[in-house]
Predict the 3D structure of the following.
Amino acid sequence: MTDPKWAWAPYEPTDANPWDRRKVGHLYRRAGFGATTAELDTGVKDGHLKTLTRVIDGHAESDDFSSTSAFMASERSMPSGAPQERLSAWWLDRMLKTAHPLREKLTLFWHNHFATSNAKVKNARFMLDQYHLMQRHALGSFSEMLIAMGTDSAMLVWLDTNKSTKLAPNENYARELMELFSLGIGNYTEADIREAAKAFTGYELSYGKSTFSYRQHDGSEKKVFGKSGKFKGDDIAKLCLEQPACPRFIVRKLYRFLISESDTPPAELIDPLAEEYRKSGFDTGKLVSVMLRSNLFFAKESYRAKIKSPVEFVTGIVRGLEGTAGALPLAESLEGLGQVLFAPPSVKGWDGGPAWLNAQTLLGRNNLALALTSTEDTRFGSRCDPAAVLAKHNGEIVDFLLDVFLQSDVQPAARDRLHDYLKTAMHVKYPAYWSVGDVSNHRVRAVAHLVLTLPEFQLN
Amino acid sequence: MSTRRDFLKDSSLLGFGATIPTFLGQSALAARTADKPGAKDTILVVVQLTGGNDGLNTVIPFTNADYYKLRPTLAIAKDKVKKLTDDIAFHPAMAELAKLYTEESAVCVVQGVGYPNPDQSHFRSMDIWHAGSTAANLTDGWLGRTLKAKPSPAFHLAASNETSPLALAGAPVRVPSVASLDDFKLKTSAASGADGAAQKGVITGVADTSSGGNGLLDFVSRTQMNTYASSEKLAALGKSYKPKVPYPNTALANKLKLAAQLIDGGIGARIFYVALDGFDTHSGQGGATGAHADLLQQVSDGISAFYRDLAGHGHKDRLCVMTFSEFGRRAKENGSKGTDHGSGAPMMLVGGNVKAGIVGEHPSLTKLEDGNLVHATDFRRVYSAVLEQWLGVDAKAVLGGEFKPVEVFAKK
């Protein structure tokens, strides 16, 4: 078994486990949306401490980024009835351009945690408000976020709190608060839920604003987790936070997000971090920093121990090719891969792991990789051009693409096949009107597509 | 878990060449025996009603005064229901299924189905139904284990954002999720036919990596190999299909139509899985019309068209459609004109060989548990009948225990 002390101690490079391009790639994939060639170069050159600090702390967003993103999210450009894809595209664009990818990445984690879908909420303003709540606390205080979520407009609609009254309490929010947002199944009783549901009455939406109605609120005494009081919604959230199951539940979920989804970590590994997390008052930034700097994070068993989510797959390609694909078509294409931002399939979020891949989504990944790297498909513009990036970095086709996307960590047989393809491609009859440049660009794009279909590229 | 080597061996033995995966390879076996009378393989189509279907407003005890007391705004008036017997009726939106019941004798309703100590979490309860078990840790599904015991092709007919259900986990070959046969095509940016073939050669070739023990990498390459091998064949399949009756244009009906194509295409698939979401009617559920009625109509019209289409193609006696939901809903309606999570609820089986009629009594409306209808029949007794008498597998092995089969199939 992994020694917890070793596991969470800060990683130091050794001869057997050196700081190298693969580790930089691993860090950028997990803590962000993939690395560019320049980021891989700098990461290796700067060493692990400087690189980790840069990735964890990030940089302040540029004025240009902030104002453009805010404008795109303004009521004028994103009214409450704005279509789903526009919301999704807006966030995707932030993920691709942000100066602090870790924060957006953790926001995505929380989105999957408090999984709320615009399919029911049907209000882009509410969804944006919830996004901002999660982004504000992404690396901040989980307790503040959990309490605030109880009166979040999108959440009020999503789990019917806005329809829950003293005479007819609705159990939906109370149940998911315990089962999915803070404790996990087995750490509460049905009676706890029925009692807690009474506390979540009287929270209403009035003229698009979250309000509280004393008249509809059940002010009677409730008994939850053995404690009695005239609880309101925020009291229930606080009671959940006091349960020992709560920090463990969140740490376990973050472990799966940041470290590995291939194993179920034993309690010995989770408990020390859970205890620190509780003591810190649920400071998520601190917890994430410990995880990302740890021996376990950089250990062999955590490397490629996750299946890339569709968002990670797509952003990784665009960043690796230093491209600027249109966010809207990119967002639309995510649907076929099984992940629509702001529209998780249920309050449980996306299952993740092997569930990401089936016949359909795999073909979807291959065909999207093709569309992004080829000029025949004009959906994404030609601003994501492997030939142009290769020309800029001046390398050999196969070596360059395998380096930027996989830090050259592939089976020798796969590398041979790519070289063989290039050799056969020499003898292919190209259309007579193609110039020498057309032919060579075609080959670069074809190899880029093939690299993106490698089984290794589906892993994170 | 069969290894890649097994699957190459199996499929080349069947003469399909080296890249046909087992789930298609099996079709050769099915085809070989299909000529003999009665040898055509039976088919199970599971229809999942996601969110907790309100059983009480689906199969209605319309002569029971307590029903009308419990449901002051949601109850269906006596003169509106579709009568099945003197005191049991379908919701009015289920006219088509009622017709299959009365005219075709093709519907069996099992009342009050559930399991002991019902769980009211959507996810936990759904997992229990999927796994066919109430154990604490559920990692594979009853259909996955069935496929392991008796391998055959199977399909999850899905919307693109739907993940493969737990019910199918544990199958020897990952069950593909399919939304449309047209999407089932591997594309390349070929400058010519030879270039395209070379690129496809690389894509299928690199999938076949023998990894150094990384389970996930193995999983990815296995999924890729299955996918590539099946894509060409499936893409060709749908083009020639002509339904015998029109299907309604709903998500569920479209999935069932796809199932009909795959069944009629004769690739030997025996298990199909589809889901329809939206049954979590906490508020604004509606009565004879409204949200719940629309869902029931989608179920009823979709299954009915599917049955009649397959009957037209001569497959009705091979067909068994089985519906279930993770739980029913609270007997008493809530204040939001909806219903909260409950427990016991009916299941329906539709097909040419089901024992038409109603099985079991309607759960009591006065002896409730926590306000919920008490189940009389364990759902694993229905599974057991399906496994033993329909799919021909050892139910005890699949369910990990003895469950007396409910009589839902006609005796031959």
